[in-house]
Amino acid sequence: MAASRSMESRVGRNKQRYAETGERLVAGVVPLNAAKTHVLLIQSTRRAGWVLPKGGWESDESCTEAAQREAWEEAGIVCKVDYDLGTIKETRAPKQMSKEAPKALYQFYEVTVTSEETEWPEKHKRNRQWANFAEASEALKARPELLEALTRSTISR
Question: What sign for the dihedral angle of Cα 50, 27, 108, 142?
Fold first, then answer.
């Protein structure tokens, strides 16, 4: 299963998709356990704290493929897509934007984690932890777009 998955994370933006209005298109997952009682969070590499797995949607893949690839690269999970949680616009202030982090348009999916692997591409730079809704809400409060994705999911409250 995971043996056929790349142990290298994709890097660069040469295949990055952008919306007609210029936003970077980002695919992400809200990875839930089978009981829907906990969500898997990963450590952010850019700032202190926890985030949901997400990353650029590239031109050679579907949005769900991008979301599942990011889940693998960042969290080391294999997952099944359950629901499309819709698009969420970025709410960062313009002063928080940069060439490396332009405004984004997120497409999130609720997924069920079917396998948590011990080795994955970004293991060396990310920890992961399961959290209930209250814990995850607190951890994601500084990232409204991620909190919105969590809120749209069917996680038990």
Answer: positive
What residues are paired with 86 via a beta bridge? 108
| Tally of helices (H runs) and strands (E runs) in the chain | 3, 7
What is d(CA 70, CA 28) in angstroms, rounded to the nearest whole number? 7
Give the pLDDT of the chain (157 residues) as one tens digit per residue: 344 677 777 666 688 999 998 899 999 999 999 999 999 999 999 888 999 999 999 999 999 999 999 999 999 999 999 999 999 998 866 665 555 556 899 999 999 999 999 999 999 999 999 999 999 999 999 999 999 999 999 999 9
23 touches 117 (CB < 8 A): no
Core vs surface per residue 22-61: b (16+ CB within 10 A) or e: ebbbbbbbbbbeeeeebbbbbbeeeeeebbbbbbbbbeeb
Asked if 121 contacts 69 with a C-beta cutoff of 8 angstroms, the reply is no
Q: CB-based burial of residue 103 (10 Å sphere; 0-12 exposed, 13-18 middle, 19+ buried)?
A: middle
